[in-house]
Recover the amino acids of this structure.
């Protein structure tokens, strides 16, 4: 079997043959053509007219030689068979095709459409020209890319060779369009906020740091757009949303990638209860757009998105699945011991809320397959959320877990600047104690709040996790076109 350098050298020789024949292998302009999908849809009309048509695309296979050659041409809208036949195709046209064409090349062809004896829609080629000569062979048509790491590194080949992978990302795009359609229809305004921020706020996460030379200041890639979106509520925009990238300097696993897409939306005068209702409607809308119905089976589990979602408190989950009898009052030493018994590594200086959350993620969350709102979190767990009117030690917040994955985090937004300042102080103290993910005080945000922020409800949805659920995948890298990878050595 020829090596890659040998195959590449052969293709470069073919480039020279094209030059000798006066054909540019990488022309600026593509001659007029129609999409292959249109050619297939209008095939009967085109064949009756007996007029020549022109198509462009990538050659995915070549068959036959000598007097009769077949090839499959794909342009992303569909695939069409091409044929060159001795006696009907000019001999020089056929000869150059036979000597220079490889699987993977992009070409333009012109000819007459007809139906073969096997009922295959085909174009009898009378003219052709190279559009882009490929220098490396495509993966085997049937085996594709077998190495998972190579699939992610060379996603362009993964989507080219695997129809199901390409369709997955088309579905993801349709899902995002459905989210926009829902929010636009509900009166939300799409906005864009800063990606480079002087304070990495709005979430509990460690940021990436960079430096701006002209201003000679450190800046952070945003971990969340929340604090800027809330400024817009102060600024008179009653409903806003943003779909954009976030960056968190964290580990990589089946549900985490350092760079990811987030949807956050905020509504003035709403609260967590109202946003739960909005979330239910949003999920039903997306399911209908993706599958044409609200009752769907994903993997082996059936879901009915017309039904109201279950609701359970954070502490009740810990009691039920982690067997922590009194999570509200348990000593931090006892929580550390419980975590270790579940095989959880507890970081030095981790606060009780972090330990409780780690226990919850390990023992409780995987049990929640049907859509479930988890409510009533401890106040220091979500420092940007309003306290619960029933218990000031809790916040009026919820997370939505589906299929064992946390997809939504939301709450009644804290709009009391004095309470917010005190929460920030607590976070600052934790950061000094070694908690790198603790939030930092943002004085400019506090200043904006002091001008008056309306009561509001806010929702954050991880787009990749939503895609994981709706597309039935189990690894976040399967729904990110170009996931973060360690460079090749």
């Amino acid at each position: 079997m020829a090596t890659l350098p040998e195959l590449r050298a052969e293709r470069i020789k073919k480039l020279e043959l094209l030059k000798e024949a006066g054909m540019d292998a990488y022309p600026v302009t593509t001659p007029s053509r129609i999409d292959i999908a249109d050619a297939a849809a209008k095939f009967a009309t085109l064949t009756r007219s007996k007029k020549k048509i022109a198509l462009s695309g990538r050659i995915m296979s070549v068959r036959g030689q000598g007097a009769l050659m077949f090839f499959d041409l794909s342009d992303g809208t569909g695939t069409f068979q091409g044929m060159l036949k001795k006696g009907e195709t000019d001999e020089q046209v056929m000869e150059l095709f036979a000597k220079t064409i490889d699987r993977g090349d992009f070409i333009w062809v012109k000819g007459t459409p007809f139906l073969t004896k096997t009922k295959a829609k085909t174009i009898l080629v009378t003219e052709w020209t190279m559009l882009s000569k490929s220098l490396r062979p495509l993966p085997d048509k049937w085996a594709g890319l077998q190495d998972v790491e190579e699939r992610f590194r060379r996603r362009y080949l993964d989507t080219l060779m695997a129809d199901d992978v390409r369709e997955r990302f088309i579905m993801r795009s349709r899902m995002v369009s459905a989210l926009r359609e829902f929010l636009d229809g509900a009166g939300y305004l799409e906005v864009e906020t800063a990606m480079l921020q002087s304070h990495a706020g709005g979430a509990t996460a460690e940021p990436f740091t960079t430096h701006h030379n002209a201003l000679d200041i450190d800046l952070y890639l945003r971990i969340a757009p929340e604090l800027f979106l809330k400024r817009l509520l102060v600024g008179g925009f009653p409903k806003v949303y943003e779909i954009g990238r976030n960056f968190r300097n964290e580990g990589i696993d089946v549900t985490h990638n350092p760079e990811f897409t987030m949807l956050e939306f905020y509504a003035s005068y709403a609260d967590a209860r109202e946003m739960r209702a909005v979330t239910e409607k949003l999920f039903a809308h997306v399911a209908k757009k993706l599958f044409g119905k609200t009752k769907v089976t994903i993997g082996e589990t059936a879901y009915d998105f017309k039904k109201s979602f279950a609701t359970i408190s954070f502490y009740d989950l810990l009691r039920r699945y982690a067997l922590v009898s009194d999570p509200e009052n348990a000593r931090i030493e006892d929580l550390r011991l419980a975590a270790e018994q579940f095989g959880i590594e507890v970081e030095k200086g981790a606060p009780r809320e972090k330990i409780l959350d780690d226990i919850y993620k390990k023992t409780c969350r995987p049990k929640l397959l049907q859509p479930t709102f988890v409510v009533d979190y401890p106040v220091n767990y979500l420092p940007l959320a309003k306290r619960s009117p029933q218990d000031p030690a809790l916040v009026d917040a919820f997370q939505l877990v589906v299929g064992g994955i946390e997809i939504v985090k939301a709450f009644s937004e804290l709009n009391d600047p004095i309470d917010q300042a005190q929460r920030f102080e607590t976070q600052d103290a934790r950061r000094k104690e070694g908690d790198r993910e603790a939030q930092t005080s943002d004085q400019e945000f506090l200043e904006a709040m002091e001008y008056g922020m309306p009561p509001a409800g806010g929702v954050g949805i991880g787009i990749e996790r939503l895609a994981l659920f709706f597309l039935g995948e189990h690894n976040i890298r399967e729904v990110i076109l170009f996931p973060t990878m360690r460079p090749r050595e």
